[in-house]
Amino acid sequence: MKYLLTIYGDESRWADATPQDLQDMMAAYEAFGREASAAGVMLGGEGLSPSGTATTVRVRDDDVLTSDGPFAETREQLGGYYLLECGDQEEAIGWAARIPGARDGAIEVRPVMDYEASGVDRDTQAHEAAR
Amino acid sequence: MKYLLLLYGDESRWEDMSPEDAAESVKVWSAFGQELIDSGAYVAGEGLQPTAAATTVRIRSGEVVHTDGPFAETREQLGGFYLLECPDLDAALAWAAKVPDLPDGGSVEVRPVMDYEAAGYEQPGAEAGTA
């Protein structure tokens, strides 16, 4: 059986973290990724860019409505996900608008974290190990 | 760049659906999944079991605390995910308790992925396992 583990935390703590704190957290995630990979349970995983980079996409009466920020209603539930490789956010939003569930629900589009570009040293994060 | 698309909707609509509507819905999702795969943008995707099947894992004062149901606080943000293959929920919960965010006050929601064949649907296409 496959299980999806979604990770929630207060992202503001990263803004105040020292480089040492960041390094320690990356090392802890690296160790988790290695352990789960070695156990044979790891299928994939990604860290996400902060919620400020999210766009929420809905389609109502064939109009594509986009709003900045993550999905924030409690009447609806997370029902699935796609992980896509796209040239840019516009392309990702284009796909989001075509998801059948966008017509009566909402799709949150969030860039996956690029740890190298963000300057954090990162050899074997979970998703690398999962490849 | 990779983008994560999170799908939100009112899950209760699936309960009231006629078999014809369900079959039609599976066809629409299959076609969309096939289109994503053909475009080359598809990396992974899964449908999830209803939120009633979710367990949220936290560590508080060094103790692992399990709560039935999905993560439901708005002060914290989705920061990442793992997709794991585990023999049962207990194994998945044990991995969740090792996620490095937890000692910092984070939470991990564990949700079994939907098994469409077991639920009596035909294979709806885009699933992570086919990537």
Key structural traits:
heterodimer; A: 131 residues; alpha+beta; 2 domains; 4 helices; 6 strands; disordered C terminus; B: 131 residues; three-stranded antiparallel beta sheet; 3 helices; 25% helix; 31% strand
Secondary structure: elements and pairs:
The complex is a heterodimer of chains A (131) and B (131).
Chain A: E1 2-9, H1 12-15, H2 19-38, E2 42-47, E3 55-60, E4 63-68, E5 77-85, H3 89-98, E6 106-111, H4 126-130
Antiparallel strand pairs in A: 3-4, 3-6
Chain B: E1 2-9, H1 12-15, H2 19-39, E2 42-47, E3 55-60, E4 63-68, E5 77-85, H3 89-96, E6 107-112
Antiparallel strand pairs in B: 3-4, 3-6
The overall pLDDT average of chain A reads 85
The shape of chain B, in one word, is globular
The major pleated sheet of chain B works out as:
3 strands, antiparallel
The sequence of SSEs of chain A as H and E is: EHHEEEEHEH
Q: Into which percent range does the helicity of residues of chain B fall? A: 25-40%
Please provide the ordered H/E string of secondary-structure elements of chain B: EHHEEEEHE
Largest interface: A-B, 70 and 72 residues
Main β-sheet, spatial strand arrangement of chain A: 4-3-6
Q: Kindly provide the radius of gyration of chain B, computed on alpha-carbon positions and rounded to a whole number of angstroms.
A: 17 Å
